[in-house]
């Protein structure tokens, strides 16, 4: 038992309760006991306090910790008698199980030593308990595989929430993105709960969370790896991926649909809080994936409030200056800035705009002289394309209205974009190097 890192006892018709001894195992990272006949209170010690509800599914009699509260307490005497029977039954089953897996564990350990030349040494932590890996889907890797990739060579990005690393697991031919959060010294149950909530999000335009690696002082979000980098790089970097208006337009509905899902289809609704071009990733088909949703709230320390993290300069809604609060309409404003980036090819802040002038104010100034002058000439090179771009520009202007009540919802934005869709297909594109 002390050497096991993963136990899968699902679909075995096991009865009784879960012993406390499982939570106390120093090496155990993942345990799946779903679809048995277990009952009673889930222990709240060690890794069991952060176990995924999916690993406990199919056991109607279980309750507490990550599951709904227990409807009533079990009498002390009955609990004591039952515990003896439960532990006895579990120990017989586990002993048999251990005999089978010990040989495999030993062989795997020898293989890792042979493959890497040395045994991996886990990072020492000042915390009271070791690294724990919460898996939100079946993973072939463990915490050692991830921690071995957290070094300067693998850094692929850095933002307000943390540093992003590329983690390649060669034996699985798998690559994931790992974001090590900046502020995690105050990490506790709130962050674990936030991650559990975000892990349940499923939308084609939302980057999927696959795991959460943490101890009592550090936290890392593990996400799917998205090949073609972020929208900011595609627009303003050396490698031009969005070479025509159709390919730029195609990014806009994906982002809108992803944000509409967060605002209207999640319960409770989720606010992104940091919509910007560098938080919009592009997959192999240049379809948009919204990333870093909810991270602004998670990196807060216990003495801060949500309003103290409100996005990135150039994307922040004007009302934040006097309300210090963010809501869905704050995301809508930031999305409007992203649309202006797509239309003009310019960053939210450029020297040519003038001192303390952002792209929204600059665009409003163009309304008096002719908005067409603001469009990116590299993609708006015909009157027909300019007309299509002007339809989207009107959407960008209403999204960035000064008053929140004058801005549409993201669901309305999706409908408006559908009406402004170009009637042509995008040009064939090629990509030369993968990014996050």
Automatic annotation (TrEMBL):
Its EC number is 2.7.11.1. The chain crosses the membrane at residues 87-111. SMART domains: S_TKc. It catalyses: L-seryl-[protein] + ATP = O-phospho-L-seryl-[protein] + ADP + H(+); L-threonyl-[protein] + ATP = O-phospho-L-threonyl-[protein] + ADP + H(+). Residues 150-417 form the Protein kinase domain. Keywords: ATP-binding, Kinase, Leucine-rich repeat, Membrane, Nucleotide-binding, Repeat, Serine/threonine-protein kinase, Transferase, Transmembrane, Transmembrane helix. GO terms for cellular component: membrane. The keyword Ribonucleoprotein does not apply. The keyword Transmembrane applies. It is found in: Membrane. Signal peptide: none annotated. It comes from the Eukaryota. One of its GO terms (molecular function) is protein serine/threonine kinase activity. Pfam families: LRR_1 (PF00560), Pkinase (PF00069). InterPro entries: Kinase-like_dom_sf (IPR011009), Leu-rich_rpt (IPR001611), LRR_dom_sf (IPR032675), Prot_kinase_dom (IPR000719), Ser/Thr_kinase_AS (IPR008271), Ser_Thr_Kinases_DiverseReg (IPR051420). Its main location: membrane. This is non-specific serine/threonine protein kinase. The lineage of its organism: Eukaryota, Viridiplantae, Streptophyta, Embryophyta, Tracheophyta.
């Amino acid at each position: 038992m002390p050497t096991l890192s993963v136990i899968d006892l699902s679909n075995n018709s096991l009865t009784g309760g879960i012993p406390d001894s499982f939570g106390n195992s120093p090496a155990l990272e993942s345990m799946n006991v779903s679809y048995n006949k277990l009952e009673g209170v889930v222990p709240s010690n060690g890794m069991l306090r952060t176990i995924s509800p999916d690993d406990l599914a199919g056991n109607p009699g279980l309750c507490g910790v990550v599951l709904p509260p227990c409807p009533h307490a079990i009498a002390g005497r009955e609990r004591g008698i039952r515990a003896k029977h439960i532990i006895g039954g579990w120990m017989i089953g586990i002993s048999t199980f251990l005999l089978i897996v010990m040989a495999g564990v030993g062989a795997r350990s020898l293989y890792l030593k042979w493959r890497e030349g040395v045994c991996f040494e886990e990072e020492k932590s000042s915390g009271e308990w070791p690294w724990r890996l919460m898996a939100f889907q079946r993973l072939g890797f463990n915490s050692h595989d991830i921690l071995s990739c957290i070094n300067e060579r693998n850094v692929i990005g850095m933002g307000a929430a943390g540093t992003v690393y590329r983690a390649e697991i060669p034996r699985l031919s798998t690559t994931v993105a790992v974001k090590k959060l900046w502020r995690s010294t105050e990490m506790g149950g709130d962050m674990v709960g936030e991650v559990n909530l975000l892990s349940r999000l499923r939308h084609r335009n939302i980057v999927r969370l696959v795991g959460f690696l943490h101890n009592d002082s550090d936290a890392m979000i593990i996400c799917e790896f998205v090949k073609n980098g972020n929208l900011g790089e595609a627009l303003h970097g050396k490698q031009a991926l969005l070479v025509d208006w159709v390919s730029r337009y195609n990014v806009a509905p994906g982002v809108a649909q992803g944000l509409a899902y967060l605002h209207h289809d999640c319960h409770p609704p989720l606010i992104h809080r940091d919509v910007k071009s560098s938080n919009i990733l592009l997959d192999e088909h240049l379809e948009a994936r919204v990333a870093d949703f909810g991270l602004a709230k998670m990196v807060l320390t216990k003495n801060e409030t949500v309003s103290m993290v409100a996005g990135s300069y150039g994307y922040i809604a004007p009302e934040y200056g006097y309300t210090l609060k963010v809501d869905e309409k704050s995301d809508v404003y930031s999305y409007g800035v992203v649309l202006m980036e797509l239309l003009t090819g310019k960053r939210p802040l450029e020297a040519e705009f003038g001192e303390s002038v952002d792209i929204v104010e600059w665009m409003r100034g163009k309304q008096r002289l002719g908005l067409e002058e603001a469009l990116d000439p590299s993609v708006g090179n015909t009157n027909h394309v300019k007309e299509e771009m002007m339809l989207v520009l009107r959407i960008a202007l209403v999204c960035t209205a000064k008053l929140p009540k004058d801005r549409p919802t993201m669901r309305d934005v999706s409908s408006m974009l559908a009406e402004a869709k170009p009637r042509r297909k995008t040009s064939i594109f090629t990509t030369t190097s993968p990014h996050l």
